[in-house]
Amino acid sequence: MCHVIVTCRSMLWTLLSIVVAFAELIAFMSADWLIGKAKPSSSEDVDNRTGGSQEPYHPTLGIYGRCTRISHMQFSRRDTLCGPYAENFNEIASGFWQATAIFLPMGIMILCTVAFVSVFTMCVQSIMKKSIFNVCGLLQGIAGLFLILGLILYPAGWGCQKAISYCGPYASAYKLGDCSLGWAFYTAIGGTVLTFICAVFSAQAEIATSSDKVQEEIEEGKNLICLL
C-alpha cells in the first residue's frame, strides 16, 4: 500500500532540489557569464525621444553564446542580438570552455534527474531497500563535484581569442582584463553551494520520513501523513 508522507524537511529538500536544477540549467544556457568592456555609442545611436546619444552598451559572452548590438541602417536604430556563437562543440572558443561544457551539463543532468525523482518521494521512500533520499543525496554530491570542476576550468579559458576580443588584450587565464563577471557565473556558484546543502539535507529528509511519529501514523492505518 502506498503511503503519502509529507514533512517539512522532505518538502524543503524537494523544493531546493528543483530550484537548484533550474538555476544551474538557466545559468549554463545564459550568455551573461562575462560582461565585456563598454562599446562607445556611434553617431547613429541616437535616442529618437530625447535626441541625445544612448549610453555605451556592454556585450556579454557565455560559454557557447553571446549578446551583442546590431544596427538596422534602414531604421537608424540598434537592437541587442543574443544567440550561440558556436554552431557545434568544436567551435567553442576554448578547450577549457569545452571541458566546462561537458562537466556542467553532466552535473545539471544529474540534478534534473534528482529533481524529477524528488517529486515522487512523497509516495516512494526506498528503492531496492535503499533509502531514496540517501541515493539522491549521493547523486547530488556527485553532481556538485562535476559543477566544481566546470567552474574551476571556466576561468582558465579567459585567455582565448574570443574572450580577449570582449575583455581586451590584458585578459588571460584567471584574469578578467576589462570584463566583469555576469549574473550567470554567480548563479552557477550559488547553485553549486546549494547542491551540497541539498546533499547534506537529504539525510534530514530521510530521518523525517522514517521517524517514530510516521511509523505510528502508518500503524494507525493512515495513508496520508503530514507532519511538521
From TrEMBL:
**Entry's transmembrane regions:** 12-35, 96-120, 132-154, 183-203
- Keywords in alphabetical order: Fertilization, Membrane, Transmembrane, Transmembrane helix
- Answer whether the UniProt record assigns the keyword Membrane to this protein: yes
Name its GO BP terms in alphabetical order. single fertilization
Checking InterPro entries in the record gives:
LHFPL
Q: Single GO cellular component annotation? A: membrane
Q: How does it sit in the membrane?
A: Multi-pass membrane protein
Task: Give the source's domain of life in one word.
Answer: Eukaryota
Describe the family membership recorded for this protein in Swiss-Prot or TrEMBL: Belongs to the LHFP family.
Q: Any idea what this protein is called?
A: LHPL2 protein
Q: Which organism is it from?
A: Tyrannus savana (Fork-tailed flycatcher)
Q: What is the lineage of its organism?
A: Eukaryota, Metazoa, Chordata, Craniata, Vertebrata
Gene responsible for this protein: Lhfpl2
